[in-house]
Design a protein that fits this description.
The chain is of the alpha/beta class and 88 residues long. It has a single domain, classed as STAS domain (Transcription Regulator spoIIAA). It has 3 helices and 3 strands; from the N terminus they run E-H-E-H-E-H. The longest helix is centred in the middle third of the chain and has 16 residues, at 40-55.
């Protein structure tokens, strides 16, 4: 699943729902290489997608984590909870 464009409070509900649909369909990777703008709502959506994957007994990984999202995860003390792909 490729996340494209901004993900902020303005559009996170739609992005979250689209992502949940993708996770339920069986995607295994969330690629954030095309995220252009973000706030903490993307972090919350990411954890919701990971949780949804776990409920379906599927491991989900995150690729190309934006630096801003990594900074937020560190700030909130949850960076180690993100299932990052190797090298990201």
């Amino acid at each position: 699943m490729m996340i494209v464009g901004p993900v902020t409070l303005k559009n996170v509900t739609a992005v979250l729902e689209e992502g949940l649909t993708e996770v339920r369909a069986g995607v295994s990777t969330i690629d954030m290489a095309e995220v252009s703008e973000l706030d903490s709502s993307l972090l919350a959506a990411t954890f919701a997608w990971v949780r949804e994957g776990r409920l379906a007994n599927r491991a989900l990984t995150v690729a190309n984590l934006p630096a801003g999202l990594q900074t937020l995860a560190q700030l909130y003390g949850v960076e180690e909870l993100l299932p990052l792909t190797t090298g990201h």
